[in-house]
Every structure is written in C-alpha cells, then in structure tokens.
Write a structure and sequence with these properties.
Elements (H helix, E strand, L loop, with lengths): L25 E2 L9 E5 L3 H13 L3 E5 L2 H10 L2 E7 L7 H11 L4 E6 L4 H9 L3 E4 L4 H8 L4
Parallel strand pairs: 2-3, 2-4, 4-5, 5-6
Antiparallel strand pairs: 1-3
C-alpha cells in the first residue's frame, strides 16, 4: 500500500486538472522532470492511480501502465523521463523492465518499489541501476529521487 496522508507534506500544492490526457489514464499538471512524464507501473490500478495523483500534486506529469510490457512500449514511444515501477508485475517483472530500459534508454531514470524483501531481486535491481524503495513508499524520498538534479 502507498501511504498518501502523512507521508509527504502536500499542503500548499494546488490540485490542477486531473483529467486523463487522451485515452490513457494519467494526470497532467505540467512538467517537472526535464519537461517529460513519469510513468507509474503497477498491476494494482488503485495504487497506481493513488501514486500518480500524489506525484501530480507534487508537480509531475504522470501516465500509467499495468505491466512491464505495456510500460516498455510507452518508454519506446518517447517522452518518459522516469519510471516508477512495482517489482512484482504480471508477466515480466519490474527488474526485467529495468534491464530493457537500460539497454535502449539509459537516460530514463528508474525507481522500483517492493513490498517484499527479496534480497536477490533487490540486488539485481541495484546492479541494473535502479533506485529501490520499500512499500509503503516514503513520498518525500520518491519526490527527491525524481528531481532532475538527483
């Protein structure tokens, strides 16, 4: 579960248009990461939407994917500056997604989230160059990792 209330100080942030752009689910509040979008990947749609809304309140443009395969296709289309993904996904894992992104899109920042403490999987993710956060996600830490200077 992603903690929203109390995890981050979102007071003073204004809720802008949260209408999905086009037919894709997402929240458009204006760019904050290199003028591009943060892709949130989780097979639990409620959690993905919750995290996307929190990121939107933090000033990030977001879009959603429910699998590593769908996420990779979105990254291939361009305009994705960062990916925030669950480790455990149906089909290919978040770690597989990191490997694929690193091969073709090394400039895309990848942050993995996990509710499980699988040391081997987390070590593989770190070797692949992904940041790793435990669920519930500490929102302040996530926002800091998404800042362009990090």
């Amino acid at each position: 579960m992603i903690e929203a209330a109390g995890s981050a100080d979102v007071s003073g942030l204004s809720k802008r248009s949260l209408a999905p752009p086009g037919s894709e689910p997402g929240y458009d509040t204006g760019p904050r990461v290199s003028g591009a979008t943060v892709l949130v990947v989780d097979d639990n749609l409620a959690l993905a939407e919750n995290l996307a809304e929190i990121l939107a309140l933090g000033g990030f443009r977001t879009t959603l994917a429910d699998s590593a395969e769908t996420a990779y296709l979105r990254v291939q289309k361009g305009g994705i500056a960062a990916v925030v993904s669950d480790v455990r996904l149906p089909g290919r894992s978040g770690i597989d997604l990191v490997d694929a992104i690193r091969k073709d899109h090394a400039d895309v920042r990848v942050i993995l989230m996990s509710a499980f403490s699988d040391a081997e999987a987390l070590a593989a993710a770190a070797r692949a160059g992904a940041e790793i956060l435990s669920k519930p996600v500490e929102i302040k830490r996530l926002l800091a990792l998404l800042e362009p200077s990090n």
